[in-house]
Design brief:
Mean pLDDT: 86
CATH architecture: 3-Layer(aba) Sandwich
Number of strands: 7
Low-confidence stretches: none
Structural class: alpha/beta
CATH superfamily: Vaccinia Virus protein VP39
Shape: globular
CATH topology: Rossmann fold
Radius of gyration: 16 Å
Strand content: 15-25%
Strand order of the largest sheet: 3-2-1-4-5-7-6
Length: about 200
């Protein structure tokens, strides 16, 4: 039984994002995918099993999470999937030297509002380098005050809401949590907004 700390537990958002990847599995072979805040890495592992070229990442300050990424790869017979320490909001040599990517994955990364801007700063940097890429993210609505809309606008990003029923993830056994409280899971795809005049 995994400890239910950050990065050490398969959160319901990871299951929902993995379901989205499975529903789109035919489009994944050859895609270059980066999972941020990967922890146990369920979405990244599913993407890799579906033929994507995956890089897993978690905070360089959380070696136990990076080890969990590596362990998940080994348990799933994916020993060659790279694992990088990438800390949100920090321009590191690892971030600067990343190969081109098509899809960024993040399940339940919008957990602590103090991290939201660091996450979107990192996403903006990656999307500027890869303008056709998208950030596929699932999150739990934990508060009525929870919103990234102003930050999306600030960083010239746009989001599209993806209804869970559109990919079969509205089932109780997928989108519910045994953790205390009832939290609604949502999914959105974030991409660069069009610049003025284009």
């Amino acid at each position: 039984v995994l400890d239910s700390q950050y990065g050490m537990y398969v959160w319901p958002c990871a299951v929902v994002l993995a379901q989205y990847l499975w529903a789109h599995r035919r489009s994944l072979p050859g895609k270059r995918v980066l999972e941020i805040g990967a922890g146990v890495s369920l979405p990244g592992v599913v993407a890799a099993k579906c033929g994507a070229q995956v890089i897993l990442s978690d905070s360089e300050e959380l070696p136990q999470c990076l080890q969990r990424c590596r362990s998940s790869c080994l348990m799933n017979r994916l020993p060659h999937v790279p694992v990088l320490g990438l800390t949100w909001g920090r321009l590191s040599p690892e971030l600067l030297s990343l190969a081109p990517i098509d899809i960024i994955l993040g399940s339940d990364v919008f957990f602590d509002p103090k991290d939201f801007e660091d996450i979107l700063t990192t996403i903006f940097f990656l999307l500027e380098k890869n303008p056709e890429a998208q950030f596929w993210t699932t999150y739990q609505v934990r508060s009525a005050d929870w919103s990234v809309e102003a930050l999306l606008y600030k960083w010239n990003l746009k989001s599209i809401h993806i209804p869970l029923h559109s990919f079969g993830a509205d089932k109780e056994h997928l989108a519910s949590s045994s953790l205390p409280g009832r939290h609604t899971i949502e999914m959105m795809i974030i991409s660069l907004a069009q610049s003025e005049g284009t």
